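Sequence of Alpha-amylase (Paenibacillus terricola).
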Amino acid sequence: MKLQKKHAKRWIHTGAAALLLSSFLAGCGDSSDNTASEQPSPATDKQQEAVGTAKNTTAGWGAVDEQPSTVYYELFVRSFADSNDDGIGDLNGVTAKLDYLASLGVGGIWLMPITESPSYHGYDTTDYKKVEPDYGTLDDLKRLVDEAHKRGIKVIMDLVVNHTSSEHPWFKEALTNPSSPYRSWYHFAAADEKVQTDSAAGADSAWHGSGDNRYLSIFWGGMPDLNFDNPKVREAMIDAGQFWLDQGIDGFRLDAAKHIYGDYASTIHTKEVQDLNQAWWQEFRAGLIQKKPDVYLVGEVWDSTSVIAPLLNHALDSGFNFDLAAKLLSGADREQDSDIAFSLSRAYGAYEHASAGAFVDAPFLSNHDQTRVMTALNGNVEHARMAAAMLLTMPGNPFIYYGEELGLTGSKPDERLREPMPWTASLNDSDDTRWIEPMFAKGGDVSVEREEADSGSLLQWYKTLIQWRNEEKALHDGGIDSFKLGDEKGLSAYIRMTVDERVLVVHNLSSKPLQAVISDQTAYGAFSTIVHTTDSSAALEKHSLSLPPYSTVIIK
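Predicted 3D structure, token representation.
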């Protein structure tokens, strides 16, 4: 088993959240020790600068701890855009489409793995410091980063440190030479050694190989796990991160973040494993901030709040909010309010406590491992619009999966979730990738070409919502609180606020017109003016709000 070593942005809340927080933390057995770990010097960590920045507003709605945000766009380079007509997406293709991304309004892109790999997806690297040849060169990456930064777009990339490819030179040498120094970079077991086999990642067994060459590989045999008890491994992973920061990368999406020490289903949720995971990510962050104090780290931690929270203590800035994604899709699909703000207050309370106010949420609807939004919503475009409207009015850094803004469909196997981006209706432009024959992304009306020309398209809906977010400080940087609008289940409402601004967000998730009364006797004062609406027939007269079907308004 992997063993030991020990080694924290913003939200608001009022009244009820404090009670929720105290009751939640009473049930979190691992929260009391979070602040006892070694911590990097706050003088060099931009995350630390966020701590204690909550301010009491003079406007009357209590303390505010904000979440300054960026809209990120996840893209699969192989599928996104082709620059040399070989049918494979590449880094120069991404650079050529930066103006499209800027017009969408995003402020950041997440590149799925771009390091050298024998697989199409790249989550099993053979060289942590080399660009996948199919995608181009290191100079191509530097040009992409430079051009993105000119447009105000940050660039983060996938970094997979839990495991390498079985084709990695380290592992190949370790497998063939028991005396190799790389042997201890992985986990090997002798033929007669008893090992746990219950993989925490869902594989039939956590161990692969035979005889004295059995090795730990919790995803599948082609991805052997690295041994983070070995200081050389930790140094190598920090060195890899620093290398990419030197190329201008702004941060990392950290794959399988809970599996660094979480190998077995029977032990992954123990305090020992959680402490070890926390210690590693704190050490990793401490190494990276020496190069880039404002590095952004977002982790894939598909688990409960109590597992995510410790990793926000001077380690990760964000953990993807899988629970929220499910609630947003469910609310849109059922056309019913999921009381999102109330649910978030519980999680945010725990994250606030663990990070001393230094976390940023990372909401999303789907990603490269999940059924695409339009398929999950059974092809209902109106439901997809409302899911997007909720996502893009959430706190934190919302992430959009490429093609989501077009309404691409897709379901397992994974290749079908990662089909080529349809730039043209005919799919015959040189930009369109052809590495796989699409089953879902067939072009036609669901293409950039058609949707840019259609003022009523889903793409234009996304552009509108992102523009609102970029214009309104309360949407861009604020926290969230509940706001009750009677008993109509089709209405979803919540407050977004900063220290000096607040807006009321109201969605009609249903297929029928709905009305509600908005009292001016609220903790946030009166709301009297619709400043943004997706439907011009929405109206607010005195205290009476009328919303057409499937619409969203922002009220001040």
